[in-house]
Amino acid sequence: MPDYEFSPASGDRPRSWISKQVLIVLGVCLPVILALAIWVGVLTWRQSSMGATDHVSAIVLGRCLTYTRNMHPELRNQDCKKILNTFTSAFVSKDPCNITKEDYQPLIDLVTQTVPCNKTLFWSRSKELAHQYSGIQKEMFTLEDTLLGYIADNLVWCGDPRTSEVKEEFCPYRNENCSSTATSVFWTVVSQKFAESACGTVYVMLNGSGTTAFSKASTFGSVEVFNLHPDRVHTLHAWVMHDIGGVERDSCLGSSIKELKSIVNQRNISFFCQDDYRPARFVQCVRHPEHPSCSVLM
């Protein structure tokens, strides 16, 4: 039989060559694919989480001592270590998405502070200005000017069922799948207590440069206004403030304020509204002294 040498047809390659090509491609692409998958997973996790404040316990304790020893020495008898332990016991070793109001009740019962009548200032979407105003008018109290509000202001915290420590990494955002976070429930509970304790004439600073000055979705609109006791509070004054040089989207004549007035009146509480309350406007003008709207105040 004659010897024939069979050669690959044009375009074909030896099987071993193909295997090497596949291995090279897989070797290059697989790490990239895996890295991309990990990155997407981390991104998705981070989008559903928010950064927890580092050293929350130390910050809370330090703020408590500062508040009770220096800012309000009349509260020096408050036990800050006990306050810290009661605070962390509300959420440590618990599902960060399943915290209840009852978890914080021991803390509410422990901390006793009386805000003088006629000195309560609520705010909605106007936190910075409200705090600037209360910082000057020292007799006025926003929630963050009280002990519980002060120790937790701008902090984020949560626990984890797998550990007895305060979580120092990421805490879940509040969303439809996680509506009862440690931070959000805390603010709901202390906001309710703040409103229940108010007496006499109370005030609320609202933002008229936003879409609506009053919103029932805000803490003030969903919690605080409905927990004012008519037998303790007789009048609510609303101050609708507008940004210096900004757009005036809402005012005392707007539909959202009419809704607020209706809610308040139904609770047998008198209601008054004023656009750009003059003393608060002065505070705004400190940063914008040359603006025409500020020159007319002088």
Automatic annotation (TrEMBL):
<keyword id="KW-0808">Transferase</keyword>
<feature type="transmembrane region" description="Helical">
    <location>
        <begin position="22"/>
        <end position="45"/>
    </location>
</feature>
<dbReference type="GO" id="GO:0016740">
    <property type="term" value="F:transferase activity"/>
</dbReference>
<dbReference type="GO" id="GO:0030890">
    <property type="term" value="P:positive regulation of B cell proliferation"/>
</dbReference>
<keyword id="KW-0378">Hydrolase</keyword>
<protein>
    <recommendedName>
        <fullName>ADP-ribosyl cyclase/cyclic ADP-ribose hydrolase 1</fullName>
        <ecNumber>2.4.99.20</ecNumber>
        <ecNumber>3.2.2.6</ecNumber>
    </recommendedName>
</protein>
<dbReference type="GO" id="GO:0005886">
    <property type="term" value="C:plasma membrane"/>
</dbReference>
<keyword id="KW-1133">Transmembrane helix</keyword>
<comment type="subunit">
    <text>Homodimer.</text>
</comment>
<dbReference type="InterPro" id="IPR003193">
    <property type="entry name" value="ADP-ribosyl_cyclase"/>
</dbReference>
<keyword id="KW-0472">Membrane</keyword>
<dbReference type="GO" id="GO:0016849">
    <property type="term" value="F:phosphorus-oxygen lyase activity"/>
</dbReference>
<comment type="similarity">
    <text>Belongs to the ADP-ribosyl cyclase family.</text>
</comment>
<keyword id="KW-0735">Signal-anchor</keyword>
<keyword id="KW-0812">Transmembrane</keyword>
<keyword id="KW-1015">Disulfide bond</keyword>
<dbReference type="GO" id="GO:0061809">
    <property type="term" value="F:NAD+ nucleosidase activity, cyclic ADP-ribose generating"/>
</dbReference>
<keyword id="KW-0521">NADP</keyword>
<keyword id="KW-0325">Glycoprotein</keyword>
<keyword id="KW-0520">NAD</keyword>
<dbReference type="Pfam" id="PF02267">
    <property type="entry name" value="Rib_hydrolayse"/>
</dbReference>
